[in-house]
Amino acid sequence: MAAFDDNIRPDHRIILEWVRENSLVLDLGCGSGELLDLLIKQKKARGHGIEISVDEIYKCVAKALNVLHGDIENGLADYKDQSFDYVILNQSLQQIRHVDRVLQDALRVGKKVVVGFPNFVYYRARMQILFGGKTPVNAALPYQWYETPNLHFLSILDFIEYCREKDITIVQQSFLGAERKVHLLPNVFAQTGIFLITKTVSR
Amino acid sequence: MTSKHQFIETKYFTFDELTLENGESISPVTIAYETYGQLDAQKANAVLILHALSGDAHAAGFHEGEKDPGWWDSMIGPGKAFDTDKYFVICSNVLGGCKGSTGPSSINAKTGKPYALDFPLITIADMVNCQKRLIDHLGIEQLLSVVGGSMGGMQVLSWMVNHPKSIRSAIPIATTAKHSPQQIAFNEAGRLAVMADPNWNRGYYYEGQPPDKGLAVARMVGHITYMSDVSMAEKFGRQKKWPSQGEKFTADFEVEGYLRYRGDNFVKRFDANTYLYITKAMDHFDGFYGKPVQDAFGHVQAKVMVIAFKSDWLYPAYQSQEIVKACKIAGLETSYCEVESTYGHDAFLLEIEEETHLIQHFLKKVLNINMR
Q1: Secondary element (H or E) of residue B354
Q2: Mean of all residue pLDDT scores within chain B
Q3: Is the CATH number 1.10.1740.110 carried by domain B183-282?
Q4: Which residue among A96, B33, B169, B247 is least enclosed by CB atoms within 10 Å?
């Protein structure tokens, strides 16, 4: 079923909808720069990525992107407060050691922060644990326990609760299943949660 | 160029006087330089290559009658990183050098003899000011890029800070904004080796024997710092030279023979006083000019590509990251890559494939922005 009609990744499509034109963006864990490239081409964004893998750096450079080789944990401290319109942490949050520190720093550096992560309690994962008795492996969590880069296994509910506790405003949220957006019981039926959050009051 | 096989010739540009950073002056000043490719009608495709400690103006191609090409020939030429079908590439010998530019071995117009230690102390910015004069002479208002490794990278930083409007982009490679105590220490060991050679004669050796022994030891120390533990192990292992020469303290191991060979070869082409002057300029260089990192690049405008190498312990990646930090805070469009390599500091002359990929795409981007 073709729920999404072009080659753009569904999570990237959602982020593209959220980001305003001519924004300054910082993509933390930008990978091969696919999303950054789309933001520049379709949204006239400016900005750069931070990426730890040298092979991904080469791909970013080939796309004429600005990219800094390094890890996310230490990369944010240098930036001034509110120096980006958006800081993006898409599919990288779960691989960061000090999530809270990085998120707080991202909220300091960016006026808004995009966070996308796999929902660990997606119903198939629940079934794999409950009936299979094994650590879940699925499209959003494709790794075996012995090779996963993921350090944190959080749910959509966990993240919403975190935002409430830390006084973080959720501006937008979107949930993706295997093939389409999920509206009903996202903590059960969504493989991926994407949030647009901010710390600044009133907008 | 009419043919790919055309020989390259070094050219010379002489101007009346240069006032140095320390207020002293040199008069006249000659700068040796070479160019490759064609300057376009808008004079917008010029790339200035800045050489390291022992480099010279001969960066690419062949001089007539010589077997070896220029020192960065693998990067400069048709289809290469600095594609001479697209870019006009310039490389000049630094002020203080001994390969055609005015330096301590040049004739002092006042005395008719080589300057020797009458040559004033120079800085990286003085070298760059000479390059600026050369660029003006060539009628180029703005360079597409300035690029260099090691001491060449220091000159890149000096261009960024001191001539921000004259460059569109900058590529500092395997370099630092300032030398660490460790880097100064290695340079001082080299300088003391030169000065401990009785032939040095307080710098006035041009009418007698030059301090070859001392300079060779200085170069040996240098070569040790340019390689890595791994690259030395791979190149030499504990291989012994055979047969043993009968004496007690001979070069028994391959690595010893290699260092002696490199040292002896170096003195044939390099002036000991130049070694002293240039290493001093490197040690005193401060690319942030005393400012804290957050103010260092406040007025810099260039797009920047910083490149470091994993096994480079002489110019470790943290020093490149400090440059990146200054770029980040200044809001410059910056890319940074720490290239995987086991070659140590020498990597900037050897990791051609990776450097070519990074630089080719970066230059293309800068050129395209110009076109718009």
Answers
A1: helix B352-371
A2: 95
A3: yes
A4: B247
